[in-house]
Every structure is written in structure tokens, then in C-alpha cells.
Design a protein that fits this description.
339 residues, alpha/beta, Rossmann fold, 2 domains, five-stranded parallel sheet, two-stranded parallel ribbon, 12 helices
């Protein structure tokens, strides 16, 4: 593994920056974009008609590394309905929910996301904070709210707090004359919490970012890998198919993390001053993330032995598989036609 000086690290970071900003638009993007279009249209009709479709919520669910945040960031950034008209206009109020969270602390976080800087005061009620949120959202002509890591609203909440959070979400979509679109993204447990209240659950469209399978998704990943490498004057060799399968497996079958690992492997090639990206460079990238030994490195173990290795905490959560057994999405969750 290459020793990296400060000068090399800095120059390589600059070189890799365009790759880390590169967005791969897949079938998932199109599906979620369609749902968002429908919700925003429902909201627009609700402003002008007395009756409209009640669905004003979007639930984007996926495991860590699935690419939820990246997908939504690009989707809302490019949407014509969500373009700011001026410095004061804030079409979508976006925030990452930070735990521990209560209904009141979430209201305070949302208020700050609206640009209203205020210290948290325990003597002010959640109802008062949410009232300020609605006032400022109207003043800034917002049309929706995006709560990333939405499961943190419920994970450590009491039953009372969870009900209050669900009531708040429903309330944002029911404001007379000015309903808001609510986008929640988070882990698989988020959907379970939402379904606890049928009145809330029925208002949401759903997008589940399922795992991808190495033996099918690699065919679509390979051209993306080639495009990433070509952008910085590099290329892959004949083992690119094998590398792609291992990348997906090493990323716990998650699309977003797979693309990040592709860039990490290319970065190792840059550190080495190479123009050909090899399996050993991915082994180095994987080792930097996991500090694993050679016997546990998915990019060093021969086929088919690497399939029996479980990924070692490349993402925040390891896969649910017994030690020594490969992790493979089930037929029910596998998402083969992602591109």
C-alpha cells in the first residue's frame, strides 16, 4: 500500500473531486422523480382547488450506503418546481435529523433550517416551535420539507413522542390552503414506524432502494467504472468484471457505497502514479477502510472464496449473514434492473 505524503494527498484529492461529484443516474432516480412530480402536482392543485389527492408524502427507504441522500440531493436540486426565485425564497426546507431527537427539538432544528437562528429553550412548547416553523415556511414560500435520517424521529422515542411526531408529519400535509409535501428518508425501520399510523401511512408514496446483486448488477456497473477512470485518464484491465462483482459484495450490496468504493480504488491508482486500475489497488482501498488482514480482504482472496467473506464494516452496518457465508439479496429484495 502506497505511503501518501501531504502533497500527494492534496493533489490527488483535487484530482478526485470531480469523480466524487459525479452522479450516476439510474432507474431509481427516474422512479423517485416520477413520484416527486406527482406529489408536487398534488400540492399545486391543492393550492387552487378545494379537493385534491391526499398523498403529499414521499418515503425513501434503504440501508446505509444505498445512496438515498445523494439521489434526493440531485433530484431536488434540479427540479424546476423547487428552484429558488430569490435569496429569500426557500422552496424545500431540508435538514438531517440529528439524534437524540424529540418533537420539540425537531421543530427547533427545522426552524434553524429555515434560517431562523435561535437557541433551544426548554420552557417553549413544541406546539409553539411548530407554529413558528409554519409561519417562517409561509414567509419563505416553502412548498415542502425533507427530513433525512428520519428514523431518528422514532428510534428512541416514547410511544407518546412517536405519536406526536406522526401527528406533526400529518399536520404539515393538512394545513388548510397551504399543505406541504413531506419527504422522509432513512433506514428500513422508518417504514415500520410510519405504518403504525394508517392515517399517516396512506399519505405516502414509497421508494425502497433495495440491495443489488453482484452477479447481475456488475454488468451495469462496469461501464460506469470505465467512465470514472477515463475522466481522470485511467482505464481498467480485463479483470474489470471480477473487480466490479467484488466491489458490490464488499459494499454490502449497496449501490451508493459501491460507487464510492470505485472512486476509492481509482484514488489508489492515482497515489501509485498508475494509469491502469488493478485489483491490488482496490485491495489497498478496502484495507484503508477496514484494516483487515489479507485473508479477510475481498479483493485478495481467490474466486470463489471471496464470496464467503462478509464485508467488514465498510458501511455503518454490516450485512446480516452468518460468519463465513456470502451475503446475497433474496429474490424478494434483489434489484436487478436498476440501470
Amino acid at each position: 500500500m502506497k505511503d501518501v505524503s501531504w502533497e500527494l494527498a492534496l493533489s490527488t484529492a483535487v484530482r478526485m473531486a470531480p469523480l466524487r461529484e459525479r452522479y450516476v443516474e439510474t432507474r431509481r432516480h427516474t422512479v423517485v422523480a416520477s413520484q416527486l412530480n406527482m406529489l408536487l402536482a398534488n400540492r399545486e392543485m391543492a393550492l387552487t382547488q378545494s379537493k385534491a389527492d391526499r398523498k403529499l408524502g414521499l418515503l425513501v427507504v434503504g440501508s446505509t450506503g444505498a445512496g438515498k441522500t445523494t439521489l434526493l440531493r440531485h433530484l431536488v436540486r434540479d427540479h424546476p418546481y423547487l428552484r429558488s426565485r430569490n435569496a429569500r425564497h426557500l422552496p424545500l426546507v431540508s435538514l438531517r435529523v440529528t439524534a437524540p431527537v424529540t418533537n420539540k427539538s425537531l421543530a427547533h432544528q427545522t426552524l434553524r433550517a429555515l434560517g431562523f437562528e435561535t437557541d433551544f429553550e426548554s420552557n417553549i412548547s413544541a406546539h409553539k416551535y411548530w407554529g413558528w416553523v409554519k409561519d417562517h415556511a409561509e414567509e419563505r414560500d416553502a412548498c415542502g420539507f425533507l427530513f433525512d435520517e428520519g428514523q431518528d424521529l422514532f428510534l428512541k422515542a416514547s410511544d407518546t413522542e412517536a405519536r406526536e411526531a406522526l401527528s406533526m408529519i400529518k399536520g404539515l400535509m393538512e394545513i388548510p390552503g397551504r399543505p406541504y409535501v413531506v419527504i422522509l428518508s432513512g433506514g428500513p425501520e422508518l417504514e415500520k414506524f410510519i405504518e403504525k399510523d394508517p392515517m399517516v401511512s396512506e399519505r405516502f408514496y414509497r421508494a425502497v432502494l433495495n440491495p443489488i446483486a453482484p452477479d447481475t448488477a456488475f454488468r451495469a456497473l462496469v461501464p460506469e467504472m470505465a467512465a470514472f477512470a477515463q475522466q481522470v485518464g485511467m482505464s481498467f484491465g480485463e479483470d474489470v468484471d471480477d473487480i466490479a462483482k467484488r466491489v458490490i459484495h464488499a459494499s454490502s450490496n449497496q449501490l451508493g457505497r459501491s460507487l464510492e468504493l470505485v472512486v476509492d480504488g481509482i484514488q489508489e491508482a492515482a497515489y501509485a502514479g498508475a494509469v491502469r486500475v488493478t485489483m491490488d489497488m482496490f485491495a489497498d482501498a478496502y484495507h484503508r477502510h477496514t484494516n483487515c488482514g489479507k485473508a479477510q480482504n475481498i479483493f485478495l482472496v481467490p474466486t470463489p472464496d471471496w464470496r464467503r467473506l462478509s464485508p467488514i464494516k465498510v458501511t455503518k452496518k454490516t450485512v446480516d449473514s452468518a460468519p463465513g457465508h456470502a451475503s446475497s439479496p433474496s429474490a424478494e429484495t434483489r434489484e436487478d434492473a436498476i440501470w
